[in-house]
Design a protein that fits this description.
Oligomer: single chain
Radius of gyration: 19 Å
Shape: globular
Length: 320
């Protein structure tokens, strides 16, 4: 099979398209013929080995050499004991916790990581949902109707879904990203938009909930932007900010009545299925910015990593 491989940390230039043996489904696994996979921040971080937490399991070189965690495709073989799906079933899911491998024509996946693909969603749309949908659903669950929510890094896949979910819930959303995305954020329903290069969003008002998808600010700046009893959580960002959120955050929160910490998002269909259902019903939409081929994965990662994508970037491994 064809797969995009990297053997050392670095930029997109370290990626190579190679022929690898087709994997075999192990106990409780299914072999999926990948039709589409989407790019996530985790792919960019694991490619570079930065922040430091991206090197867990591979300090000097990557342990898993094929990136791509969100997949959509067809089941083509069943491993011993796999009973949830049949050969030919259309499925989608997030394989990050089981080793990724989506930038390839086939991947062996635990059946528990997959869900049946809604018929109203294309393979590209389905591949764009699992990781982003789980993050967006968990983030918006923190906000109550009528509350004020700020999303930093809002123009990507998770932010695009989170804005729509929050607006549907009756939450007033302030969305932060670069100037090229502000019109897009308004289109999604954000009540207010901020170009982070021109305005410090931690001085833009008081918010009941702050969700930072690319956190790198001082923990005291986040506290300044919170309303009384407000919550601030980070999803991705620098290792330094992560450590401070985990250590200083609880202490500062206890002293001021706020909550500062990390948004821990669990994987598996139960955590993204409801968002997928809303996308399938048309309640919210999956925003796909660009579609690249398997041989264009370096360009796809570059487009995503440079912060240019409006929504998700998808890799079409084969035609539907």
């Amino acid at each position: 099979m064809r797969a995009v491989v990297y053997e050392r940390y670095g930029g997109p230039e370290v990626l190579e398209l190679r022929n690898l043996p087709t994997p075999v489904a192990g106990p409780g696994e299914v072999l999926v013929e990948v039709v589409a996979t989407s790019i996530n921040l985790s792919d960019w971080e694991n490619l570079h080995g930065s922040p430091a937490y991206a090197r867990i399991g591979g300090l000097r070189r990557p342990r898993q050499q094929v990136l791509g965690s969100d997949i959509a495709g067809r089941v083509v073989a069943l491993g011993p004991g796999a009973t949830r799906f049949a050969i030919g079933d259309e499925v989608f899911g997030d394989t990050l916790s089981t080793g990724s491998g989506g930038f390839a024509e086939f991947v062996a996946v635990p059946e528990t990581a997959l869900a049946a693909k809604p018929s109203r969603l294309s393979f590209a749309e389905a591949s764009a949902i699992p990781q982003a949908g789980a993050i967006a659903g968990r983030a918006v669950a923190l906000a109550e109707a009528g509350s004020r929510m700020l999303l930093n890094g809002a123009g990507g896949g998770s932010g695009s879904l989170a804005i729509q979910l929050a607006v549907a819930k009756g939450v007033a959303v302030t969305a932060v990203d670069n100037a090229g995305k502000l019109d897009y954020l308004r289109e999604l329903g954000a009540q207010r938009v901020i170009d982070y290069r021109r305005e410090d969003f931690t001085r833009s008002g008081r918010y009941d909930v702050i969700v930072d998808l690319v956190a790198r600010r001082s923990i005291f700046a986040y506290r300044r932007a919170l309303a009384k009893h407000g919550r601030c959580v980070m999803v991705g960002g620098t290792a330094r900010t992560l450590v401070r959120m985990l250590t200083v955050g609880p202490l500062l929160g206890a002293a001021t009545g706020a909550h500062l910490g990390v948004l821990f998002v669990h994987q598996g269909p139960v955590h993204f299925a409801s968002v997928a259902d809303k996308c399938a019903s048309g309640e919210i939409t999956v925003r796909i910015d660009r579609v690249f081929g398997l041989d264009e994965v370096p360009a796809a990662l570059t487009w995503h990593g440079e912060g240019r994508a409006l929504g998700k970037v998808v890799v079409a491994v084969r035609s539907d």
